Amino acid sequence: SVEPAAPIGTFTFVVVSNRLPVDFEEAPDGSTIWRTSPGGLVTALEPLMRSSGGAWIGWPGVADCDVEPFENDGISIVPVCLSARELEEYYEGFSNDTLWPLYHDVIASPSFHRETWDAYVTVNRRFAEAAMASAAEGATVWVHDYQLQLVPRMLRDARPDLVIGFFNHIPFPSYGIYAQLPWRKQILHGLLGADVIGFQRLEDAGNFTRAVRRLYGYPTRGVVIDVPTDTRQTRRVVAKHFPISIDAAGYEEMARRPEIQARARQIREDLGNPKTVILGVDRLDYTKGIGHRIKAFGELLADGRLSVEDVTLVQIASPSREQVGSYMALRDDIELAVGRLNGDFSTISHTAISYHHHGYPREEMVAMFLAADVMLVTALRDGMNLVAKEYVAVRFDGDGVLVLSEFAGAADELKQAILINPHDIEGMKDAIVRAVEMPRRDRTRRMRALRRRVFDHDVAAWSASFLSALSGGAAVKAGISDALGA
Ligand code: G6P
Fold first, then answer.
1. Residue whose CA is closest, atom 6 of ligand 1?
2. Could you write out the DSSP letters of every residue in 17-65?
3. Rounded CA gap, 265 and 368, in Å?
4. Residue 91 CA: which ligand 1 atom is closest?
5. Which of helix, strand or coil describes residue 96?
6. Which atom of ligand 1 lies closest to the CA of 95?
7. Enclosing H/E stretch for 283
8. Which of 22, 62, 187, 321 has its CA 20 to 30 A from that of 222?
9. Which atom of ligand 1 is the closest one to the Cα of 320?
10. Dihedral pair phi/psi, residue 436, rounded to 5°
11. Which residues make Cβ contacts (< 8 Å) with residue 203, sequence separation at least 6?
């Protein structure tokens, strides 16, 4: 029989993330539309969910939206409702005005407010309860990202039968920055409720382990942390990097469709058939270095090293977190810069920057990647940056040049890109010119190596390696094997 205090569900695999893979939207006639939601997390998890028959717990993207669980495209969706106030305090406040800037090396300054912390605790509890109500006895629950760092501990305390994984999609900062957080110990305690804590880069896992040593003094050996329990024993927690990826074959398949290739040709034609199309695709976020990129491009036009007759920069900036002050300010800055640059350099027939503040369907993005000779990823800090991997996966023709910031997690893997420091404007200008002028042979050689990496390490390999570490953890717990070791 089911205990009323801790209802037990039927799913043996449960994913918990702040955002569901689909956003709720009400059509003008009052009917409901579900739209694919933004960001890398959803892109990465969707294929796994479709094949595993699990439940996905998350927020449907609007306030006060009370929707019953339903099935979407083969995935069981369990919506968690947030009030307008909770959205403001937990999502816009603590998640995106405290944790996001703090974890991205304080590019924008984080706010620290006690009320928003309280909301973060309350909402994390709601997600934990929803997960428990879905998870069968002994189920695996995989919690995602910085919005839900307290959930692993809440699950462990209430449901010690569960196998609990956590994956952090964004960077984990160095101790000097992390230590600013007034709730730094509570967050670590929350995360340490998991059996396996995954990070994007080796460095992120190292930063986390160091923070645990500094703030709790727990012994660590390699990727293993010995966490004391109430019963004076220790639990082994693994903190390790598992760089996330994409469904590379899926992207290539789309890129090979004749209608998408026709669309790519059309895009170039509509741009006036410039010799070179340069592309940037980002959420409109201050971590992405969009302003730095525009500055470099503008100087290249001003110096006469590039000309609008030959080169167009297409910048897709998808709307993001529009109620957060730093994002509003960023939008103003970027749009001012784009407007100025176009005013200075565009001609009647050639636009310097073709700027679009929209999200686009995946097919359209694939066509843009195919149409782009040069892809600019100039993030000042980024957990991974899946756009870089998507561009590579799409270029089955072996052409195209990726310019990639060394501050994106992807730079640890995509070494044959032209790597840049986006703060170094002169260096970025040289890199762009080099990309524009790169001979075909060099482009192909680099792209071939990049593609090998992305196809050998796709999202299926990522989730398989995380989940196998996690089931190793369960085996250790059950005293069956010592598979994980140090
Ligand atoms: C990043 C985060 C995700 C987030 C996405 C979109 O990829 O790691 O957790 O979902 O951005 O941001 P949003 O705030 O719109 O969910």
1. 39
2. EEE-SEEEEE-TTS-EEEEEPPSHHHHHHHHHHHHHT-EEEEE-SSTT-
3. 9
4. 14
5. helix
6. 14
7. strand 276-283
8. 187
9. 15
10. -65, -35
11. none
DSSP 413: T
Gap between the Cα atoms of 366 and 262, Å rounded: 12
- State if residue 43 touches ligand 1 by the CB under 6 angstroms criterion: no
Q: Which two tokens stand for residue 399?
A: 């052409």
Report, in angstroms and rounded to the nearest whole number, the Rg of the chain calculated over CA atoms.
Answer: 23
Coil, strand or helix: which one is 374?
A: strand
Quote the tokens at residue 187: 């967050």
Q: Name the pTM for this structure.
A: 0.94
pLDDT tens digits in sequence order for the chain, 486 residues long:
444 455 689 999 999 999 998 888 888 998 888 888 866 677 778 878 888 889 999 999 999 988 899 998 888 999 999 999 999 999 999 999 999 999 999 999 999 999 999 999 999 999 999 999 999 999 999 999 999 999 999 999 999 999 999 999 999 999 999 999 999 999 999 999 999 999 999 999 999 999 999 999 999 999 999 999 988 899 999 999 999 999 999 999 999 999 999 999 999 999 999 999 999 999 999 999 999 999 999 999 999 999 999 999 999 999 999 999 999 999 999 999 999 999 999 999 999 999 999 999 999 999 999 999 999 999 999 999 999 999 999 999 999 999 999 999 999 999 999 999 999 999 999 999 999 999 999 999 999 999 999 999 999 999 999 999 999 855 444 433 333 332
Binning the chain into helix, strand and coil, the percentages to the nearest 5 are 45, 20, 35
Q: How far is the CA of 283 from the centre of ligand 1 (A)?
A: 9
- DSSP 3-state assignment of 214? helix
What is the best residue among 18, 22, 41 to mutate for testing ligand 1's pocket, by most ligand atoms within 8 Å of CB? 41
d(CA 204, CA 193): 18
ipTM: 0.97
Q: What CA–CA distance (Å, rounded) separates 163 from 477?
A: 9
Question: Does the Cβ of 41 fall within 6 Å of ligand 1?
Answer: yes
Which amino acid appears at position 247 of this protein?
D
Note the helical H segments in 304-347: 325-345
State if residue 236 touches ligand 1 by the CB under 6 angstroms criterion. no
Helix (H/G/I), strand (E/B), else coil: 164: strand
Q: Find residue 197's DSSP bridge partners.
A: 166, 239
| Contact indicator for 414, 408 with CB cutoff of 8 Å | no
What CA–CA distance (Å, rounded) separates 424 from 205? 27
Return the best residue to mutate from 16, 35, 320 for the ligand 1 pocket (most ligand atoms within 8 A of CB): 320
Q: Closest by alpha carbon to 470, among 482, 484, 456? A: 484
Q: Which of 235, 247, 196 shows the shortest CA–CA distance to 366? A: 247
Token duo for residue 394: 């799409």
Question: How far apart are alpha carbons 104 and 283 in whole angstroms?
Answer: 15
